[in-house]
Amino acid sequence: MIIIIITFTVGAGEVANFAAYAFAPATLVTPLGALSVLVSAVFSSYFLQEVLPLAGMAGCVLCVLGCSVMVLHAPQDEVVASLSDMEEKLKDPGFLTYAVGVVVISLILSLVVGPRYGHKNVLVYTVICSGIGSLSVACVKGLDIAIKELVRGQAVLMDPLFWLLLLCLVVCVSVQINYLNKALDIFNTSIVTPVYYVLFTTAVMTCSALLFREWHQLPPESVAGTLSGFLTIGLGIFLLHAIKDISLSPDSLPPFLRRQQETSGLQLLLPCTKRGRKINPGTTGQSAQRQYWGNF
């Protein structure tokens, strides 16, 4: 029963994410995916009793602030009303150059670089799934337009572009999931998640800007607001994942700070030694404290 509920909720979330691209620019929808990381962190803390450290709480706050800034300054994509308009967009030299570059770089990374350095560098596989994933977002935008036309009663299923976009979407998503799983199998999730989020969002913003010209008439203050919101979300994701398992106990301090702490601990104990409670020479910090209290 639990598996059915999880499958249903994940499927519903993906359908909602798919539908979001039909009503908002990809530059806005993709960064807001950070909210899923925020919700999972809060739910795991509440239902699974996982401890959310101070850095994680700060990351949640930064994610909310960054998303709010991006919503206020998000660009508007150029209106594409039909598949014929989408076809013209796909023929744009800038987008074609980007798409060919992504495919070529992905092939080089997967066939040449991956076997030698894929297990050493987290960027190898995350770059592949991020670049190919940005092309899948372009396919999703095209399919959203096709579904709108289908609802209006037009013969979209007879258009070869519809099936081409669907085929490209299946291939891109398969490649994306495959290499993301490879990265997660080799590296820790706390490393892969922030790196993948930044690379994937950057690739989607670049692809969407070339294809739909979302930044074409955006004022400078909105550009600055969008970029600052994205960087704020990225920092929040980093705090939520990359340093959530870092211990902040005294043992994790640098050696010179530990020596200072031990010295200060001895200074606190010295007045007590004058009252007849001896501490053996050479003991410092916590050892001196245990020896002192053992004299009682």
From TrEMBL:
Family statement: Belongs to the NIPA family.
Keyword Membrane: yes
Entry membrane topology: Multi-pass membrane protein
The organism's taxonomic lineage, starting at the top: Eukaryota, Metazoa, Chordata, Craniata, Vertebrata
Any one annotated GO CC term: membrane
Record-linked InterPro entries: EmrE-like, Mg_trans_NIPA
Subcellular location per the Swiss-Prot or TrEMBL entry: Membrane
Superkingdom of this protein's organism: Eukaryota
Alphabetized SUPFAM superfamilies for the sequence: Multidrug resistance efflux transporter EmrE
Protein name: Zgc:101583
Main location group: membrane
A Pfam family it matches: Mg_trans_NIPA
GO MF entries: magnesium ion transmembrane transporter activity
TM segment ranges: 28-48, 55-75, 95-115, 122-140, 160-179, 191-212, 224-243
Keywords in alphabetical order: Membrane, Transmembrane, Transmembrane helix
